[in-house]
Amino acid sequence: KLRFAVFGNPIKHSRSPLIHAAFAKQCNVPLEYRALRVELGDFERAVTAFFDAGGSGLNITVPFKEQAAALAAELTPRAARATAVNTLWRDADGVLHGDTTDGVGLVRDMVANLGWRVQGMRVLIVGAGGAVRGVLEPMMRELPDSVHIVNRTVERAETLAREFGVLGKVTAGGYETLTDRQFDLVINASSAGLQGEGPTLPAGILSERCCCYDLLYAAEPTLFMRWAAHNAAWAVSDGLGMLVEQAAEAFYVWHRQRPETQPVVQQLRGVLA
Ligand code: ATR
């Protein structure tokens, strides 16, 4: 059996073992996949030990994605741009490779599964943390009209706008820059909802056909989703599809097979409810 794992801290609520087990069954790949909590100072040692012991691949989640990028000897171009890695593997020569599949996962869920357009759209991203860093390059590849990033800490948004501005029109600011502006696609990447406080967005920023996507997911609609519905969004989604799509892309990186994602999304909905 091939051995895989996800490293994070905390890790208790990780759905990755369930998702990869479902993919493995579909594709007839014999593997085991575990969720392992790694102590904060122990990441590098744990990764090395895992591969030395014959492990085939690792997913990396909060708070280790940047450290994983620093540890990998070879990064895919999208991981190098993001300076964040969620997928690791060693090649036959023992070289550690890193990739990031979060952004592709988001774009595939929006464009292929939900049928939303990104091309030509005025995009608003709320939040400027690690998640946004992983998402921006695949997003810019879809050729949006523009991307505006707002964040509580304006400086983090500005840094992202500077770094990713080479790929297209990316601007940044505080929440006050939303006054009198409209967007066609709004993505919530702020973890504020986790603490039960929604991002404070002014009413009237959603254009007539605006789609709203929350990177968070839960059994019940999130605060941001409820805000979007209340403000007459055209379409609203949580991030469960992205979670499954990023896992599918990691599965493809490791096994060169593309599993069906929708049955697994349905299965997860059942587990969440
Ligand atoms: P992730 O990997 O999910 O992106 P992160 O890097 O910790 O996690 O980023 C969390 C995001 O949520 C940030 O944009 C953060 O804003 P700051 O950069 O100003 O910290 C945002 N966030 C978290 N709690 C928030 C709150 N109570 N109000 C507004 N924004 C919040």
From TrEMBL:
Keyword Lyase recorded: no
Record-level Gene Ontology MF annotations: shikimate 3-dehydrogenase (NADP+) activity
Shikimate dehydrogenase substrate binding N-terminal domain location: 6-88
Active site: K65
Pathway(s) it belongs to: Metabolic intermediate biosynthesis; chorismate biosynthesis; chorismate from D-erythrose 4-phosphate and phosphoenolpyruvate: step 4/7
SUPFAM superfamilies: Aminoacid dehydrogenase-like, N-terminal domain, NAD(P)-binding Rossmann-fold domains
InterPro entries to which the protein is assigned, alphabetical: Aminoacid_DH-like_N_sf, NAD(P)-bd_dom_sf, SDH_C, Shikimate_DH, Shikimate_DH-bd_N, Shikimate_DH_fam, Shikm_DH/Glu-tRNA_Rdtase
Domain Quinate/shikimate 5-dehydrogenase/glutamyl-tRNA reductase: 117-192
Keywords: Amino-acid biosynthesis, Aromatic amino acid biosynthesis, NADP, Oxidoreductase
Binding site for NADP(+): G127, A128, G129, G130, A131, N151, R152, T153, V154, E155, R156, L215, G239
A Pfam family recorded for this sequence: SDH_C
Gene3D superfamilies: Leucine Dehydrogenase, chain A, domain 1, NAD(P)-binding Rossmann-like Domain
Domain of life: Bacteria
Domain SDH C-terminal: 239-269
CDD domains: NAD_bind_Shikimate_DH (cd01065)
Reported function: Involved in the biosynthesis of the chorismate, which leads to the biosynthesis of aromatic amino acids. Catalyzes the reversible NADPH linked reduction of 3-dehydroshikimate (DHSA) to yield shikimate (SA).
Subunit structure: Homodimer.
Entry's family note: Belongs to the shikimate dehydrogenase family.
Protein name: Shikimate dehydrogenase (NADP(+))
